[in-house]
Hints:
- The structure is a homodimer.
- By secondary structure, the first copy, chain A, is an alpha/beta fold.
- Chain A has helices at residues 14-26, 42-48, 54-62, 75-85, 141-157, 175-189, 199-208, 220-234, 271-283, 287-303, 316-326; strands at residues 2-10, 32-37, 65-70, 88-96, 109-115, 125-129, 132-140, 163-167, 195-198, 215-218, 241-246, 250-254.
- In chain A, helix 5 crosses helix 6 and helix 10 crosses helix 11.
- The interface between A and B is large, with 54 and 54 residues.
- Strand 7 (132-140) of chain A pairs antiparallel with strand 7 (132-140) of chain B.
- Bound molecules: 3-isopropylmalic acid (2 copies).
- One 3-isopropylmalic acid sits between chains B (75-76, 79-80, 224) and A (170-171, 200).
- One 3-isopropylmalic acid (IPM) sits between chains B (75-76, 79-80, 224) and A (170-171, 200).
- Chains A, B: Keywords: Oxidoreductase.
- Chains A, B: This is Isocitrate/isopropylmalate family dehydrogenase.
Amino acid sequence: MTHEIAVIPGDGIGQEVTPAAVEVLEAIDSVDFEFVEADAGDAVLEATGEALPQETRSIAADADATLFGAAGETAADVILPLREVVGSFANVRPARSYPGLDAVQPDTDIVFIRENTEGVYSGIESEVTEGVTTLTRVITESASREIAEFGFDYAKQNDYDDITIAHKANVMRETDGMFLDAVSAVGDSRGADYDTALMDALAMHLVMTPEQYDVIICPNLAGDVLSDLAAGLVGGLGLLPSANVGEENALFEPVHGSAPDIAGEGIANPSAMVLSAAMLLDHLDYDEEGDRVRTAVESVLESGPKTPDLGGDAGTEAVTAAIVDEL
Amino acid sequence: MTHEIAVIPGDGIGQEVTPAAVEVLEAIDSVDFEFVEADAGDAVLEATGEALPQETRSIAADADATLFGAAGETAADVILPLREVVGSFANVRPARSYPGLDAVQPDTDIVFIRENTEGVYSGIESEVTEGVTTLTRVITESASREIAEFGFDYAKQNDYDDITIAHKANVMRETDGMFLDAVSAVGDSRGADYDTALMDALAMHLVMTPEQYDVIICPNLAGDVLSDLAAGLVGGLGLLPSANVGEENALFEPVHGSAPDIAGEGIANPSAMVLSAAMLLDHLDYDEEGDRVRTAVESVLESGPKTPDLGGDAGTEAVTAAIVDEL
Lengths: 327, 327
Ligand SMILES: CC(C)[C@H](C(=O)O)[C@@H](O)C(=O)O
Ligand SMILES: CC(C)[C@H](C(=O)O)[C@@H](O)C(=O)O
């Protein structure tokens, strides 16, 4: 069986790390892939007037899964609609520290389960009168319940014990109140243990004692900010993969952006992108292959060549070759 | 001249740390204070049906400044209206590390200038139909400009060079777009240097390289979360004071809450509360006295008795006495 994978490198270092992920997937002999490349991002906007061409949407919609690299200025116009195109409701963001790497907190292993469709991302905004703008933050019981089911399932399947529900329901009483109630209700109905945490206090605790957290279920913006915070704990965005998961389809992308400061130099860290490809393997039920890729990345992070963001002087290609060697 | 100070200890450790601040202020011979105590919080709600009695509002409104300890479950019903009562538009939250204390990032010295009146704190929420809730996030040009004027002034007066404007205008285009434009325009009109940063990326950079930041001007919720994050960098909420500053009036409070887990044991760290009293002194133009209090707190943090949150075994009273001794 051949799996059709849409490949959207995008801008900046997306052009450099996406081929690394494809190379690693091609090195997995037990799985057959057909890669279909598609364009999106700043360069495409300039060339065609559209950051996310209809053809790219169709390719992503029809593929078995999508690999996305990075977008620059147009990131929000590319990644937010793409998350919709693949119908993803859950954004899964594992943040873990690795032996052999300098980390602010070397004992971190947390998976953020970020609601991926609503909150302040609803996009309902206007300048209601001169100098006064409003945004409508939307939280529904159904989306909250869906992310909760996903999160509690994820924790169970991956043997994670500590589940935390992040919220700011003391201030956003109706909206985060509904999120908190709906997610808690799912936990209760399963007899699951979980904690709840105000997102501000949680930011502090994550910095000081990340080892106390496993799975954090959060509204959209909280997940955005807290997962980047956790990237800081483990050594930077070059290490964090993510999966945007829908009922039928899914899109895999590093948490980092297009990094215009180093783009074109061939020194971007491919780890986050390759780890995103490992999540793609999991998603297609090639768990063993996913684990093989993760183990290879870990082993290179521990004792192989490193890119400059991790204090080394190796390039993207050398690191990718080392990962492929370890497979 | 006697300054009338409203004193609202509130709940939990608020009852323990507020007297510490009063004791320190009383030890400053060069300034005359009259303290007027008032009630607010969970216990008052239980006793009277109101978490923030009208009398307390009046006392705070009429005082030259207010000291607030902490509130528990009712925190949002107490501190949000109190910030309004004193007309505060700016929440000033310095986060710095101290020699002699364990800190995740020992080289941190950042002041968050948090917009204190709008954003998701506007309180306009409802369940529009069963299972669907909305919150209206409001950002105005006038409030954004006001916090910007305050922030750029603050940076200048305190010789801080690196000013960063936090936002998420790539997603909240109208609302944070207005915030970003208005704050930038104030900076530009003064010929000030400043950077802008997406709040998610900023969370990561604050964790990894806090030494690169001085003053961060932010919308309400961003300030709430990022300042707690910074508390984690420097050793916990027991160290962060804050000022809620209005045109005429102001309220000073530690960033921490009522800490029900240790309340009543006499071991709460009074530093954040005493440092809040130092900010009160600054506010009343007793800058030298404010500095004296800060120096005393620093010296006790460096080599005096420590409360358990900082790894010591001293109680609140012993630490307070040591601070008074150092004055
Ligand atoms: C580019 C931006 C729209 C996006 C987001 O906010 O989700 C990014 O920060 C991310 O976390 O993937
Ligand atoms: C208690 C709560 C309403 C408050 C806030 O969100 O402002 C608190 O977190 C703070 O930061 O002072």
